Each structure stands twice: as C-alpha cells, then as structure tokens.
Automatic annotation (TrEMBL):
The chain crosses the membrane at residues 56-77, 92-112. Pfam families: QcrA_N, Rieske. Residues 1-14, 36-46 have a biased composition (Basic and acidic residues). Residues 1-46 are annotated as: Disordered. InterPro entries: QcrA_N (IPR045603), Rieske_2Fe-2S (IPR017941), Rieske_2Fe-2S_sf (IPR036922), Rieske_Fe-S_prot (IPR014349), Rieske_Fe-S_prot_C (IPR005805). The lineage of its organism: Bacteria, Bacillati, Actinomycetota, Actinomycetes, Micrococcales. Keywords: 2Fe-2S, Cell membrane, Disulfide bond, Electron transport, Iron, Iron-sulfur, Membrane, Metal-binding, Oxidoreductase, Respiratory chain, Transmembrane, Transmembrane helix, Transport. This is Cytochrome bc1 complex Rieske iron-sulfur subunit. Belongs to the Rieske iron-sulfur protein family.
Length: 359
C-alpha cells in the first residue's frame, strides 16, 4: 500500500487530461445480425425436393444392400476352408459390404440435412438451466421443432429406410461373431461346446509332465526347493505345430512349483494331488485367460500380469487379490516307477475364465 505522503500518488490523483487531448473510449461490438437468407433449389422447386428425398432414402436402401452383401460374402467365402484365396476374398468382400453400409448412411444423413431439412437461420437465446416446468416445456417444444424441421415424422420413406439401414448395419457384425466359435463335425462332435472344450484337456492318467517347450520329462528329484517350472503334457511335444496344437497347448499349460510339504494347506480330498511339496496349477487365469506365470518365491504368490489377480500357491491357489472369481484349477500329480512326475488325471474342473455355463 502506498504511503499518504507519497508524491507519486498525489500526482496520479490530480492528473486530468488537457482539453485538447483526445481520449479513446472503447466502442462496444455491434451485433452484425444474420446474413440475408438464400433459398436452396429444393426450397424453391418441389420437383427438386422430391429428387432430394428420393436420393436420401435410396442411399439408406443402398446401405441395407451393403449389409446384406457383407452377410452373403461371409457365407460365400468361408475362411474355414483354410485356402488363401477364400481368406482374401472373405476379408475383401465383407469389408466392402460393411464400408458401403456405413458410408451410405453417412452420405445419406448429410444429404438429408443439407437438402431436405429446414434451412432457416435462427437464434437460440441463453437462459437459466434450472429444471423448472417451463424448462421441461421448452425441451418438449425443442424436440417437436426438431421433428418438424427435419421432417422425421413426415418423411416416412426417409425415416423407415434410415431405421432399416441402421438395424441392418449391425447385423454383419453379429454374423461375424459366428466365426469365432468352432464348428461341430463328425470328427469333432464337441467343437462348438465351450463347456466340453474347457472341461477336458490333453492331460490323462499316467501322462508325464514335460518342460515347455522342449518336451523333456521332469524328474521330481531334479526340482529344487522354491523352483517354478513351465509344464506341458509330454504327448503335446510329439504333435508340435500340428492342427489344433496351439488350442490344446493353451488349455493344458501348467506351472509346477516346489515348496516344503509343511507349507501346503491341503484339504482331505486333495492330499494325494501333490507330491513331496510339489504342486501343479493351471497357468490360465480364471479372470480372462491370461497366462499366470509370475511367481513370488518369498510369498508363494502367483501374479497375473494382465489385471493383477494374485493366487496363493500354498492354499489351493485361492484368490488373494484382483478380479479373478475362482482359484486356479489344480492338476493332480504323482511319480511313476522311474521317478518322473505324471498326472493322476485331467483337471477336475474346467480351466480358464469363469463363465455361466461352467458346471
């Protein structure tokens, strides 16, 4: 704050402009108003309006044709044949159909707004946004005005063709999801049954546990305390890179961990599922199926790197943290006459993410 005797303050307070000095006074910005309205050809010529309306709903019907063609291409060029030409044609013609369906909707909507909808300029005044009765009435009126200006209620052909085009544009995507599911066949009668596919893996009674990916069998005596080993069925190594190999491997992958026997908390029915402190659990996370392969040796926790679910190896791989809904399935194991680790049976429950059809 300036002092009372400050000469500079006295000088500022006593200053007045001289009579001959021009002082600039800010001039408020004037509202230029709306430019003169220019009528469109569709506003002046009824025949031109009819042509524009026909063009709009023709584009929407063209969109429907594109959606139908995408579905037809999915059936005409099945990728299940495995041939490169079918896969190429499948991608090409389905893509063209979907592109036509979406492009025609977009162009039709733009042509509708530019040539058919009301073209009058208007000013929208600002007002309070409190939820009063008058505000509700104004909102209802705004919808009514929008309907009247767009002609959505009057232009029956445009409205119906747009609704049909929007519905049809979704159908190709729904149909394409069918390709994600395997097909049943005489050779694979359960190919389309997710319960059967996840409930059964390549593990069978007496099958040796082998290193992933070498396929070398594992002796129990070779596992050191605290070790964690990635495991696949020995039989899986013999069919490496054959048809269905990756699908079978994805379900059968196991993590083998050795602890002190006294560290294990085992229920009565699972006391025979481990061998001398060695336990085997599915590596497929029960959340969304990511590989659970990060083992914390000091805490005996398994961590899923995708969404941080944690499982306790010492206590039936129960969930400690994260979005996983159930423990990791345990593979019952023992040793054979030569000391190699073998499976007592397949998993006793489906592997992988939880889903509503799971028993």
């Amino acid at each position: 704050m300036a002092h009372e005797d400050d000469p500079l303050e006295h000088e500022r307070a006593s200053w007045k402009p001289s009579p001959g000095l021009a002082v600039a006074v800010p001039d408020p910005v004037r509202n230029p108003g709306l430019p003169p309205h220019r009528e469109r050809m569709t506003d002046k010529d009824p025949a031109s309006m009819k042509r524009a309306v026909r063009g709009v709903y023709t584009l929407f019907y063209l969109s429907i044709a594109g959606s139908i063609w995408a579905i037809a291409a999915y059936m005409l060029f099945p990728i299940e044949s495995g041939r490169i030409v079918d896969i190429r044609n499948n991608n090409l013609f389905i893509g063209l159909g979907i592109a036509l369906a979406l492009l025609a909707i977009g162009v039709g909507a733009i042509h509708w707004s530019k040539a058919v909808m009301s073209d009058r300029e208007f000013v929208e005044p600002r007002h309070a946004t409190r939820g009063r009765d008058t505000t509700r009435e104004a909102a209802i009126k705004a919808f009514a005005d929008a309907d009247a200006e767009s002609g959505f209620g009057r232009r029956v052909m445009i409205r119906n063709s747009l609704i049909a085009a929007l519905v049809a544009s979704v159908v190709p995507g729904v149909v394409l999801f069918r390709g994600l599911a395997p097909f049943n066949s005489p050779e694979k009668p359960h190919a389309g049954d997710p319960v059967y596919l996840l409930e059964h893996t390549m593990w069978k009674k007496g099958m040796r546990l082998a290193h992933d990916p070498s396929g070398e069998p594992i002796r129990a005596a070779d596992l050191t305390l605290g070790s964690a080993v990635h495991v696949i069925p020995e039989a899986l190594a013999e069919v490496s890179h054959s048809e269905g190999y990756l699908d079978e491997k994805a379900k059968a992958i196991v993590l083998l961990v050795r602890l002190l026997p006294e560290q294990l908390v085992e229920s009565e029915e699972r006391k025979e599922w481990s061998y001398n402190g060695i336990v085997a659990y599915s590596k497929v996370c029960t959340h969304v199926g990511c590989p659970v392969a990060l083992y914390e040796q000091q805490t005996h926790h398994l961590l899923c790197p995708c969404h941080q679910s944690q499982f306790d190896v010492t206590d039936h791989a129960k969930v400690l943290f994260g979005p996983a809904a159930r423990p990791l399935p345990q593979l019952p194991i023992t040793v054979d006459d030569e000391g190699y680790l073998i499976a007592r049976s397949d998993f006793n429950e489906p592997v992988g993410p939880s889903f509503w059809e799971r028993h």
